[in-house]
User: Fold Restriction endonuclease from Halomarina ordinaria.
Amino acid sequence: MKDTHDIGALQRLDPERFAGLVREFADARWEDWTVEVAPPTPAGAIDVHLEREGRRHLLHVRHYPETSRVDVRVVRDLVAVGTERGFDAVTLATTSAFTPEAASRATEADVETLDGEALARAFDEAGVEFPEGDGAELASSLRTLDYWPEPLVERIEAVIALLDEAAPDDQHRTRTSTYTDVDYYREDVEGLFAKARVTGHSFLAYVRVDGRLQPVVRLSVHESPERSLDAERELSAAIRRALSH
Assistant:
């Protein structure tokens, strides 16, 4: 389990796993309520409908990386939805932070807000356990794709493990309908240090060398596993070059 109040652990989670933790949190915090959790949207939004004895509460959660903030448009839309659908109370939570305008509008509209630190603390108080850092989850999730040869999946896991080791403390995940990215940062490297991208048919790993993000590993689902054997060696060499500057 990660250390308590570790918002970074929540930010890095796969959307489906994060939605599962949101359900655990809602079940624990609103123990006697009926809880319905909608699937996460591509924008990182999760709606939780809570009801007890005729009282209806909407919990809206934004699963954002540290670099994104909830803006006032999200608050305005949520207030409109809450009014239109007759919710008695609305809570807006995020794994990041709110812009000043968003925080002000939420206060005016009597919307409870939980920023990343408050949400992580609330999860902890509700007894929700944070999983270990999930960089390798990016690779292990590919096991659901039967057409990826097992040796290639193992090679990808090894490559991601190297990236995790090189930048263990600051990773940000982005997931769309066509790809999943993990961005890696280090305090001693300006800008993005490395990136891993997985699509349905390819895997790419980039490292910042000589001030520029350069592709180091390229693997395809159709590639011969034997051709991937140099991936770890090439990535290790690129990481050493990046950190020597």
User: Anything to note?
Assistant: The radius of gyration is 20 Å.
